[in-house]
Specification:
The structure holds two protein chains of two kinds. By secondary structure, chain A is mainly alpha-helical. Chain A contains 15 helices and four strands. Chain A has a single domain, classed as ABC transporter involved in vitamin B12 uptake, BtuC. In chain A, 77% of the residues lie in helices and 2% in strands. In chain A, the strands form two sheets. Chain A has a two-stranded antiparallel sheet with strand order 1-4. In chain A, strand 2 (174-175) and strand 3 form a beta hairpin. The two termini of chain A are 17 Å apart. Chain B is α/β, with parallel strands linked by helices. Chain B has three domains: 2-256, Rossmann fold; 262-347 and 434-440 and 465-511, 3-Layer(aba) Sandwich (Rossmann fold); 355-431, no CATH class. Chain B has 17 helices and 22 strands. In chain B, helix 15 (446-461) links the parallel strand 19 and strand 20 (465-470). The chains are: A mainly alpha, B alpha/beta. The interface between A and B is medium-sized, with 23 and 32 residues.
Chain lengths: 331, 511
């Protein structure tokens, strides 16, 4: 990239600047894919490209978006967090229980965050400070937390009996009757995370740690602490996803979030984040989540059996990664 | 801080007694379990001085550098910079105290831009830790302008050559106003032209009043660039003398503790049949119209400057790259291009300069590494005969005097020279008769070099054909029976032991 144009990018910003940034991060292919997916299904079904359906998809995708963005942060720092699905189910328990007693959504959310952060801290401590493999640690907490949820709830959903209007609205109503609140919440939080990862020193250090922990350590970064924080971020994002899901379901459901970790990893990989760490962007993850969400929705629209969604998700992520390695191989 | 760079201080003269040393190290000691890696070492270096740090592998150079960088903490002794005693808890502290180490393994984030890497430590972050992108770019460009480096601050580091990456590392030193720059084997992956450029950069750093500690195995470089030589051996200080008081023999003697009188042995090498015939070879990688023969029992050396095509030729003749025209015959049979398996079956193989990248499994045992290519020979009905495998490995360990504790220790724990020998064993075990060596002694210390040289001589005497690609003149002249000089992908000169002189070879190399 010529020096002058890129400097201009930063100064002018705006649409052209944004485009350049997108191209620079090789996310253009994802944008094109997303447009193609939408175009194909628009032709296949007249109900697909409607404001109602589009906003529905955004609402449905919002929970996965939050979770996937969090998982992406752990992958960028060179680790992985697959305990997120269990966190989604676990945090709903204190959320609902506290609201049922106190009738305060704020206290409920604080309770959920406290539990989520605790699980994240355990993950982060074991991975960063005890140097246990992240896949093993979070696989372990995935089972432990899910088992604890089953034990605590006796495998029964814990219903929301406080019926707080604001809590119901959070998962089920729309801003101006158009944009689902979950999409708004997820959009704002993920936008903030994009900014953190791009423009805050912390975010750049996460990339540096994932790119080379040794170089990061030579530069004087506290690699362990940075990794620890990444697990807190991942757990926090899963907690927010869990809160939105509980609001939509009106209950803490013990089986909720099962399999979310793999959907998240699929979206993250599709979004261009490298399993090796240090490469990828949260914006790419947003595109990855949207592509998978629109494919799922579109298949439903053309009345394809829902099983096809899984088959196609699998094909899409393998194809995406295969294309990427082909591109690298050619260089 | 950048303004200071605009007016470099007048160069301090290293020989003025009044000038305070920029760095003073006294009685530095570092113990590892079971080893005294550095034992009571002292040295001083002043602004504008280049101090060469020499010693064989294991002499304590790396330990000393890591102590100065703040990677390790000393068990004894002191480090002073600018007259103040320093205690480093991390490399960031070392940098803050004005010491920047340019490690052999470049410490940059490949996916980041050059500019971001230069300010990696703090990102010039402002309020709330917001990265000052514009400022980073502007200052990086300023530093490049001032230092005269032709690098675009906006490109990713992974798209730069090693020599450019070194300049980025040096720029990090300038960005942090480092007063001491330590370079660890900086020329080991550079072409001759890049080495010249680096020496120019070092002169500029000297003029800025920066003290330089230069670690290298290449004595020619030391004589050219260093003002003072400090030699370590087995973790202990051996000597500190002005370079002018040294010659090759005295330096080597200090390093190895004995005189290496016969660095390049030359046994009787009976000539055998022609094993390699190359006719009119041209490739897409830039070689054109190459003709030469190699006979068994011969060492044929190829010399060339940057981009001359040494590595390309090495790869082409073992069948790695497709060829445009011409032919290669190995032992009389035509070699199909782009098929190294066929090449190996015919008995020719390449030992590349990148030992780690191409071939060594660092975590696996010495035996595993040695027997990898010849595994079929110890395999019956799908089962590997472990006893035969070990016996074969042991025979090569004995033959090549490979220094190791146990056959099953990871090969990554061996010295570079011994790794090189193990790799060579792998291919001899497989049955190669013609060995192409690309920079066989890169990153290997003097003592081990002598052993590799002896090994090459032994191979030729045993009837192997050796094709040697090297950029080191003494090695070329000392080992080769015949010499070809490459320039721009063509052979521009050929010499035998009678006609080969440094001047004539260089003359052909710059044609």
């Amino acid at each position: 990239m010529p020096r002058s144009s890129s400097t201009a990018t930063v100064r002018t910003g705006g649409a052209i600047g944004l485009l350049r940034q997108v191209a620079a991060h090789s996310e253009i292919a994802l944008v094109v894919s997303l447009v193609v997916v939408i175009a194909v299904f628009s032709l296949a079904s007249e109900y697909f490209l409607t404001v109602r359906n589009m906003t529905n998809v955004l609402g449905q995708a919002s929970i996965l978006l939050l979770i996937a963005a969090g998982v992406a942060v752990t992958l960028i720092c060179g680790e992985v967090d697959i305990s997120v699905g269990s966190i989604v189910a676990a945090v709903a328990i204190p959320l609902i229980a506290i609201m049922n007693v106190t009738e305060s959504m704020t206290l409920g959310i604080l309770g959920a965050l406290a539990l989520g952060l605790t699980i994240g801290a355990v993950n982060g401590y074991l991975v960063a400070y005890m140097r246990i493999n992240a896949l093993i640690v979070t696989l372990g907490t995935l089972f432990i937390v899910r088992g604890a949820v089953y034990l605590y709830t006796g495998k029964r959903a814990q219903a929301d009996t406080a019926y707080l209007e604001s809590f119901f609205a959070l998962g089920n109503e729309r801003l101006f009757g158009v944009l689902p609140y979950p999409a708004l919440v997820a959009g704002v939080i993920v936008a903030a995370l994009i900014w953190v990862m791009r423009h805050l020193r912390f975010g750049r250090r996460v990339y540096a740690v994932g790119g080379s922990a040794e170089v990061a350590s030579l530069a004087g970064f506290d690699v362990r602490r940075i990794k620890f924080y990444c697990f807190l971020i991942s757990a926090t994002m899963a907690t927010l996803g869990g809160i939105l899901l509980a609001s939509r379901l009106g209950a803490a459901v013990h089986t909720s979030g099962i399999g979310y970790e793999f959907q998240a990893v699929a979206a993250v990989v599709l979004g261009g984040v490298s399993l090796a760490g240090g490469i990828g962007s949260i914006f790419g993850v947003v595109l990855g989540v949207l592509i998978l969400a629109f494919v799922a929705n579109g298949l439903g629209m053309i009345n394809a059996p829902t099983e096809w969604q899984q088959v196609i998700t699998g094909l899409v992520i393998i194809a995406a990664v295969a294309l990427d390695s082909l591109k690298k191989g050619r260089r | 801080m950048v303004e200071d760079l605009a007016t470099p201080e007048a160069p301090q003269t290293g020989d003025t007694d009044a000038a305070r040393p920029t760095l003073r190290v006294q009685g530095l000691t570092k113990r590892f379990p079971g080893v005294l890696a550095l034992d009571d070492v002292s040295l001083e270096v002043r602004g504008g001085e280049v101090l060469a740090l020499l010693g064989e592998n294991g002499a304590g150079k790396s330990t000393l550098i890591k102590l100065l960088a703040g990677v390790y903490r000393p068990d004894g002794g002191t480090i002073e910079t600018g007259g103040v005693e320093r205690h480093f808890a991390s490399p960031a502290d070392g940098l803050a105290a004005g010491i920047k180490v340019v490690f052999q393994e470049i410490a940059l984030i490949e996916e980041f831009t050059v500019a971001e890497n230069i300010f990696l430590e703090d990102h010039l972050a402002g309020r709330f830790g917001r990265v000052a992108w514009d400022e980073i770019r502007r200052r990086a460009a300023e530093i490049f302008d001032r230092a005269g480096f032709d690098i675009d601050p906006e490109v990713k580091v992974k798209d730069l050559s090693i020599s450019q990456q070194q300049l980025v590392e040096i720029s990090r030193a300038l960005a942090h106003e480092a007063k001491i720059v330590i370079m660890d084997e900086p020329t080991s992956s550079l072409t001759p032209a890049e080495v010249r450029h680096l020496f120019g950069v070092i002169e500029r750093l000297k003029a800025m009043g920066i003290a330089i500690i230069y670690v290298s195995h290449k004595l020619e470089e030391i004589f050219e660039i260093a003002d003072t030589c400090v030699v370590l051996r087995d973790g202990k200080w051996v000597s500190t003398r002005p370079t002018a008081e040294h010659d090759h023999a005295s330096l080597i003697k200090d390093m190895v503790g004995r005189e290496i009188t016969d660095l390049f042995p030359r046994s009787d090498r009976p000539l055998g049949d022609t094993v390699v015939e190359v006719r009119g070879l041209s490739t897409a990688t830039g070689l054109s119209d190459i003709d030469f023969d190699v006979r068994a029992g011969e060492v044929v050396g190829f010399f060339g400057l940057m981009g001359a095509g040494r590595t390309e030729l090495a790869k082409a003749i073992v069948g790695y790259d497709p060829i445009l025209s011409g032919e290669i015959r190995i032992a009389g049979t035509q070699l199909t291009p782009h098929d190294t398996r066929r090449g190996k079956a015919l008995g020719i193989g390449l030992l590349s300069e990148d030992r780690k990248g191409e071939g060594l499994m660092l975590e696996a045992s010495v035996t595993r590494n040695m027997t990898l290519a010849a595994l079929d020979k110890f395999t019956a009905r799908g089962f590997v005969d472990a006893a035969a495998e070990r016996a074969q490995a042991q025979s090569f360990v004995d033959r090549f005097r490979i220094k190791l504790a146990r056959l099953d220790q990871p090969i990554g724990t061996l010295s570079g020279g011994n790794q090189q020998k193990a790799l060579l064993s792998r291919w001899l075990m497989f049955g190669l008769r013609t060995i192409v060596l690309d920079e066989p002694t890169r990153g290997i210390d003097v003592g081990a070099k002598a052993e590799i040289f002896a090994l090459i001589d032994e191979l030729a005497a045993d009837g192997f054909a050796v094709i040697l690609m090297t950029s080191e003149m003494p090695e070329l002249l000392g080992l080769s029976d015949r010499i070809f000089v490459l320039s721009g992908g063509r052979i521009t000169g050929s010499f035998d032991t009678e006609t080969a002189t440094q001047e004539a070879i260089l003359d052909a190399a710059i044609k």
